[in-house]
Structure formats: C-alpha cells, structure tokens
Automatic annotation (TrEMBL), chains A, B:
PROSITE patterns: HTH_TETR_2. InterPro entries: Homeodomain-like_sf, HTH_TetR, HTH_transcr_repressor_FabR. It comes from Streptomyces sindenensis. This is TetR family transcriptional regulator. Keywords: DNA-binding. It comes from the Bacteria.
DNA sequence: CCGTTCGGAGTACGAGTGTTCACTGACTTG
DNA sequence: CAAGTCAGTGAACACTCGTACTCCGAACGG
C-alpha cells in the first residue's frame, strides 16, 4: 500500500488530459477539428504546447477521445428507453424527450459529433461511424425482441434501426441549430416524423 | 457592339474564378473549409495570393459560391423526377438512381456539401440550409399535387418533404463513404427506407 | 487613338503554426 | 531514503498564414 492510494501522478495526468479535452470542446464550438491548433488547445487549457504530446499524438487523436467521451456513455441509455413499457406512441415521445434533454444539457458535445460526422479528419469520422453502427445494432436488437417485429428479417431490422438512429442524429443537429427557443417546434416535427416511420413499420409486412 | 463580343476581360476573370473554385474543391476532398488557406487555394490554381481578393472576400465567400454551384443547378431536377408518371415504387427507384448517378458523377461537390452542412463556417452552413429548405418546399409542393395527398395539411406535407430531403442527404453521405464498390448495397437499403416511409405516408391519415 | 480601368504580379510584414530538444522537480518504487 | 521515472517547462527551429503595399500591362470606352 503506497502513501498515496491512487497515485497523485496518474490523477494529475488525467486532470490535465481532461482540461485539454474540455478546452478543445470549447474551441470547437465555432470551428471544426481540422482547423483546431495544438497550441490553441494548450493555451486554453493553461499548459505548454509540449505537454500536449504526453496525452495525445495528434489533434486527431484528441478528436477520437472526444468521440468516445460523448457517445460511449450513451449506449446503455437507448436500450433502457426502448425497454420501458407503454404503447409505441408513448415510447416515441419519451425517446424524443430524452434526446432533447441530453442535447440541451451538453450542446457542445453533440455539436462536435454533428460537425465531425462528415468532417475532414478521417480517424474521427471512422470513430463516429463505428459508434453509430453500434447504436443501430442495439436499436435493431431491442426492436427484434418486441412482438410487433414478428416476421421481420434480420436485415430489415437493421435497416429500421439505422433509420431511427439517423433520425436521432438529424434531430440533434436541428435542435442545435434551432437553439433553446425553437426546441418545442423541432420536437413537434421530430415526433411526427417518427410517427410516420412507425406507421410504415406497422404495415411493412402487408406490402413488403 | 464592341470589338470583342463578350469582353475578353470578363471572360478571363470568370476563368480564373472557376480555377479558384475547382482548386478549392480539390483541396476540400481531404479537409474542411475552415482549415482551407487562401494561399493554398491560389497556389493550386496557379495564381498569386493577392489575386484571390479580386474574386472573393473570404474563403467563406468562396464556400458560399461552391454551395450555389453544387446545389443551385439541382432544383429543376427534383420536380422533373417527381412529375414523371408511374406508380410510387417506380418513382422511388428512379429518384434513388438519379441521386446515385449524380453523386457518382461529381463526388467532390457532394462531399463538400455533406461536410460543410454542419461545418465550422457559419455563412456556408446558412447557404446550405437555405438551399435544402427550398428543396423541401419543392418536394412538398410536388407531393401536394398528387392525388395521394388529398386531405394532407400544408404542415404535414412540409414535414414529409423534409423527411425525403434529409434522406437524400443521408444517402449521398453514405454513398460517398461506401465508394463505387459499395454503391449497390447502399442503393438497396436506401430504397427500402424510402419504401417504408412511403408506406407510412399511405396510412398516415388512417392513424394520424 | 488616348486616357482609364482593373486583373494580376511581386514584395514585405507580423503573427501564428507543429515539432524538437535539453531540462527541472515532484512523485514513485525498491 | 536513494535512484529513477515522467508530466510539464522554456527556448528555438523552420515553416505557412492573411493582408497591405506598389506596380505592370492588356483590355476597354469615348
């Protein structure tokens, strides 16, 4: 047992690492990752430029870390929302509400994801795509366990899951553009869109 | 009537302007607009940095010009595709095919749009949003003239139009990520998604 | 034909960039 | 408690960047 339980050193390292991530997220509110300077980040974090290399190789690597931080903690959430009881209308409303709440709580994180999903930094794009694919699979799995999905093929479930996930991404983007005052309207339209998709889902096997 | 019918000067000016746009589009294949340097563009275009200012105030202004170039010429196309006869299945397949063809023909243009739709340059974001809104309105208008849209409210038509447009944007992004070899699969899934939306549309008034 | 317009060239400046290097001093380990 | 590890420092490197000048010469209008 050492004198310092967890290691003062590791703790401090994680602290400055987080300071770098936070500073970067702040700066990324008004620019995109490919124009984000290493020095710019360290200056905002209160560290010298050389210290950056102790934590990340690139600004690209920092971007990938930001992706994990934002999307990594969301995986449990989806399954939880979809697993709750209630008719589809209720669950749909709840899903949209959950998204609106999360986006409202940490806009910068979601702005970053929306911006870099198709941004100029390859590794970051790949990291986001991988996370979204996982979301689509999770949604497909949750849908597959419902009675309403009897007779659906694996592939169609994935298609539907991807459809829902893409709509969630679009909704977050729109929420960010609209700002707090436009949130209600965006939520209204998003609900209607999802309802239309759900209706299509209910009649999919009739006309597929 | 002057000695030179169109004006040699204006022609040359337009020529270098186009050279700047083309060079920028090339460079934007692997980075985003906010990291694109003025000098970088002029170097690739074979012009001195100062010449840039004769055509654009900013790289942002150049970006807006690129948006117009890419999206401005597409407005007639949508109405044309939607106006053609045939059942909804046929029209749907044709729409997807038209998109795949356009994206395949000029990938760089569409990559630029996908990248800057949520990118770090405000004016460009605004320009793209304005164009997409116009698209949504055009689609809504076209849909409203169909017999299948009887009883639909103006607002719901716009919602549906936006839904279609957003799906088109998603499809273009996915096509770009997949590359030529993955095109067939992407087109398959995109068609299925649109079919599901169309089914939802057919039953919208039953359960709305 | 002559004066004007103007697209573009050339030069120069200050500021900011990513990266390397030797170095320091607090924490950690045996 | 001594030896070693290592997060962070500070100075220096060789760039690129946007922008402000002046200037040239071909195309233009009267």
């Amino acid at each position: 047992m050492s004198h310092t339980p967890v290691g003062v050193r590791r703790t401090q390292k994680l602290r400055t690492r987080q300071a770098l991530l936070d500073a970067a997220l702040d700066l990324l509110e008004h620019q995109s990752l490919s124009s984000l300077g290493l020095r710019e980040v360290t200056r905002a974090a209160g560290v010298t430029p050389t210290a950056f290399y102790r934590h990340f190789e690139d600004t690209a690597a920092l971007g990938v870390a930001l992706v994990e931080e934002t999307l990594g903690s969301l995986h449990g959430l989806i399954a939880a929302v979809l697993a709750e009881t209630g008719d589809s209308e209720e669950r749909l409303d709840r899903s949209v509400a959950v998204i609106a709440r999360h986006v409202g709580a940490q806009p910068a994180h979601f702005r970053f994801i929306a911006r870099e999903q198709h941004g100029g930094v390859g590794p970051v794009r790949a990291a986001i795509a991988a996370q979204l694919r996982r979301f689509a699979e999770e949604v497909a799995c949750a849908l597959g366990q419902e009675p309403g999905s009897a007779g659906w093929s694996e592939e169609d479930l994935l298609m539907l899951g991807g459809l829902y996930v893409d709509h969630m991404v679009i909704t977050t983007s729109t929420l960010l553009e609209a700002g707090p005052e436009g949130e209600a309207e965006v939520v209204r339209v998003a609900r209607r869109r999802l309802r239309l998709v759900t209706i299509g889902r209910a009649h999919w096997l009739d006309e597929g």
